[in-house]
Batch of 3 targets.
Target 1
Amino acid sequence: MHIRRFLMVALVVGVASIAAAQTFNPRDDIKPKDEESTVSNDRLPDPLSGIESPAEWPARREQIRQLFATEMFGNVPTDKLNAIKVKVKVKDQGTRKSIFGGKATMWQPVVTLAGRDLQLLIFLPSESKDTPAFLAYNFHGNHTVLDDVDIPVTEHWVRNKPGNRASAQDRGNGASRWAVEKIIDHGFALVTLYYGDVDPDFDDGFANGVHAALADKPAGDQWGSIATWAWGLSRVLDYLETVPEIDEQRVAVMGHSRLGKTALWAGANDERFALVISNNSGCGGAALSRRRSGETVARINTAFPHWFCKNFAHYNDNEAQLPFDQHMLIALMAPRPVYVASAVEDTWADPEGEFLSAKHATPVYQLLGSEGLPAKEMPAVDQPSQGSIGYHVRSGGHGVTDFDWTEYLKFSSKHLLNK
Ligand code: GTR
């Protein structure tokens, strides 16, 4: 190209992209309202940068996904896993028993993955066939989901317990986070497993969990624990494809907090997940990193050095250099329905930053012909806004409540049951 023409084109492109960035997102959206931002004149990257039509989205999508994989969560070492032929296998068909006065079956098959036993806890509406399901990790072991003596206490490493061992006394301790009967009453199955079955949640130099099957430590752009857990969810979905009671084309992946980050990354990588739910996922999940409100990139990488890939540390106190922000992670779900939920007292997870991600993913949904998030401004507390993107900020703090499940069931019934 002639040099003058080149400079002219560069000038036009430059001016156009500055204008696009400014109309796309005024700085006020990034800046936390309650504190002085240390990021100056910072803008959100545009998920639709360089594209104009729906046909161009898949290539742009893959470009964004690869950036997240390389700079943040880490790539799955597929070649190494293939070399040792890692696949999910059924180890034990497990027992089934009727619960909730006969309206559900509790079923506990065991599958293996890279030498690890994954103990599944499945609740099926009675006489299930091709039933839609929620797939969600639990934090403390299956025995905490429901108080039932037939649910084995996990023998794997657990957090915050003496000797990192779980105990029978904790049966049902997490039951308030699992609206099992309500899920069944809405015609859904629930599949849960303990995330520590896949990889224990501590900085173990990648020696434990499924990593033990691979001889060496991951490179800078290779998976951290969140990517490993997300990969584990996809392998459980491989297994669910063989289960006639469950419709593998209507599996919603759900997670809370670090497991909400995990659910989002699983949904981004595996388009078989029909719907994705992030509950209070915060920094590294739904919350915009550039706002630096509540937990920051530097804080999360310091407290949990094993969660992300090593490359993510380049962005400690350096968020402006990120080639993406978390609204683009939400956009990777498009056009599939995605729900982002916050809690008003959970400022560590930056509720407004989570809302803004959902809002700024909306242009991608609109390009693909759906509504995205109906709310243009942060909705009032306990007033959900639900289109193909759902969002709510409920009263209370960090956790999963009945209010959350009521809204997830409403949203999922609409999208997966046409109700
Ligand atoms: C916190 C962490 C959050 C969130 C939370 C959780 O300590 O800072 O990012 O993941 O743990 O998972 O409960």
Note: Confidence is low (pLDDT under 50) at residues 1-28, 33-41.
Target 2
Amino acid sequence: MRLVARQMLLLLCAAGFAATLSSAQIANVEGRTSISLDGSWNSIVDPYETGIQSRYFLNAKPKTKSDLVEYDFARSPKLRVPGDWNTQRESLLFYEGPVWYQRDFSYQKRPHTRTFVHFGAANYQARVWLNGNRLGEHTGGFTPFYFEITDQIADGENSLVVEVDNTRRADGVPALHTDWWNYGGLTRSVRLVEAPEEFIADYSVQLAKNHTDQIEGWVQIKGTPRENTVTVEIPEARQKQTAQVDSTGRASFRMQFKPELWSPDKPKLYRVVLSVGDDNVTDHIGFRTIETRGTQILLNGKPVFLRGICLHEEAPFRSGRAFSEEDDRTLLSWAKELGANFVRLAHYPHNEEMVRLADQMGLLVWEEVPVYWDLQWQNPSTLENAKSQLREVIARDRNRPAIVLWSMSNETPIDEGRTEFLKQLIAYARQLDSTRLITSALNHTDRSGENRTLNDPIGEYLDVLGLNEYIGWYEGTPEDAERTRWNFAHNKPVIISEFGAGAVFGLHGDTETRFTEEYQANLFQHQIAMLQHMPALAGMSPWVLMDFRSPRRPLPGIQEYYNRKGLISDRGQRKQAFYVLQKFYRENAASGLKDVH
Ligand code: GCU
């Protein structure tokens, strides 16, 4: 059935393909005039994908009493957008498959105005129609996409239909297995974005390489050039610069200005205004340098120790995919309370608000694409998929000072196909952004007695080595950690990107009893002691800030489909280990780097 539906779809595509998915970008929709389409949408759960054949995208109504129309969005159950569907309806908690969303909206067309429909994210595949016209599709659950609808949108009433399908796929990114809930739906905001005929599609404003007294960047214009100069202004610094737009719509500029540098202690952001013709975009950007020197990471030229924590984009207290500023601020405030200056956003790009808050709150960020565990490494479309997710997240977040690390993968097997795949992804990342550090979370080590060596061939191509190790939980005892001696084949900074143990808040016992707070706290004590002797250690991000839903964790009375390795329960309760790590971070923050080496 579903295959037939897809063939039908292809036929329909050929027939009705209008707007295209732009691989370019409309930067900073937050800083633009936009009309929110968030709220309550009509929804049809369609496990057999009948909707393609029955053409739900037409949102048809029976014209006569004998007309056969076997769906009716208006009388169908509602789903909130943004939000995953799994936590909105008990019956959808485990649902994986297609769900159709539909909403009407009225719109007033304006002269010389281009209109786009923008999605913050939709997990995992989305197909979009406006007034029955197919706009296009997008793959990847965690990055933004949009369609230009200037010619399709009606002056008056419109009907937008989106089919979202979170079916896991062997050739997908991620593929069939993850240790997080496969939340489906329009998980982030949907909005109409307006821009003049000539508009600023993308831009980069950063410190010039190896300079702290020069700002450089570029602005990419789209549309019919009326003006061929762009203006870049930093009002607070009385800086204003114009630059010529070349034939490709690109204008490059350099500004002599020594900004106050952004850092976790002083997260200084400048209001930056970019304009061309009738279009202008305002952003808040910080300036900092990030580099490595031997086994150290240097922020603004000084060694920094990354006191971090991993977190999922899981909503505190209510579970489900986090999407609001409130969700994000709660999670990041907990990280700050822990004494962290760094967060690893696992294992996929989190919402834009999260990284903008990290800018404001002063948290360095590790951002990752969901190349997680095992993928079809030899499959060119899987590589293309990973590349497009990387391109979209870098385009969205390139001006965020908080982001210092792009992570290419998590816990992937050491084999030729994988290493080749990652080499290509790393090269692509460097092409897209040469200003940030490239890393991956590795987990395969060679063992001899108490000696462990991280000698993953991909290490050669990374700037920073991430290491996930679970001594004391998946292997050995917590005490083994202290006896372990680490070696690294590549002379590069190392971040312990994961270690941890499960614990149920309020479950108490001796330090040997699994899932007690005492077991988890004891494991953290020994891990921290081990880190004291770890060469090349430049940072850490234990697993994990808060308990999160996982389909791999069914243990009754303990897990209940939650991964319980949080230092904080999903209800916001701090476990003993939270205070163990907080104490270490506070002492470390006070005494700086030397305490670890
Ligand atoms: C892995 C993985 C995480 C997972 C964690 C765990 O290392 O990277 O996604 O949740 O371990 O097992 O709890």
Note: Residues 470 and 500 are 6 Å apart (CA to CA).
Target 3
Amino acid sequence: MNQGNWLTEEQTPSYRTQWRVKQVLHEEQTPFQHLQVLELEDFGRTLVLDGAVQTTATDEYIYHEMIAHVPLLAHPNPERVLVIGGGDGGTVREVFHHPTVRKVDMVEIDQAVIEACRRYLPETACGLDHPRLNLVVGDGLNWVAERRDEYDVVLVDSSDPTGPAEGLFNQAFYQNVYRSLKPGGLFVCQTLSPFFHQSLIRDVYQVVSGIFPIAMPYLTVVPTYPSGLHCFMLGSKRHNPLRPGMKTPTWPTRWYTPEVHRAAFQLPPVVAELVRPAKGMESEKRPG
Ligand code: SAM
């Protein structure tokens, strides 16, 4: 919410983050959420959905490089990719750096997000016009439920688990993601902050580790996200994201390197504590 010319994002009832707003470039209530594009003094053009910062021109590359390159380089030959959400275009921009990628399906629920980002965040949205992108406006929940053995990598670049994205953080969805993947497939979803969203990370890990043989969280830092420390959850049918002999980027990156990739999986004890295997889950692996 804006107070005067400050954007205020409530992290907890007693902790808020505030950014000085230079200009409100766009604002509308869409069928799914309240959408704003703001010019922030210190972070530039910023997409805000339901009062939560989604992406800023200043630090978006960190999130987008880490959600895309970690799973796509962990997979030996990713050709077919699905992105759920990601309406700002930053994730598909990074996906198309990978020379093996033949086709990407991107399913974004809110047309208004795509249009606003095309108009106000062109550096991020440039990936939305790629000739090998199949851009679908629709609910990722339904799309993934109708897919079988189709993708090498699925990236869930969703907003937080409220509103349209609520269903993207539960067992039924992760089981459908598993079924939509080819035998050697991987998926990654964003799971917010290890400081403020511990139960979410614990719950997502318990579910994903009950479905995928390999389930591993990894960390990065996104200055405009809650607490700055951001967690992703990776589920893999076969390939370990720390396996030797992984390819390295042949294009320039600003955050991702093979060393940053490996370090991202080195969890501090307080985060490792969140993902201790749930007792008695082993027997329930790999449904269907
Ligand atoms: N990086 C951001 C983050 O971590 O908070 C996410 C950015 S991206 C803009 C999030 C997108 O997910 C939004 O555009 C939102 O409309 C979309 N989204 C939310 N629920 C969805 C659903 N069920 N299916 C497809 N897209 C969805």
Note: The longest strand covers residues 15-29.
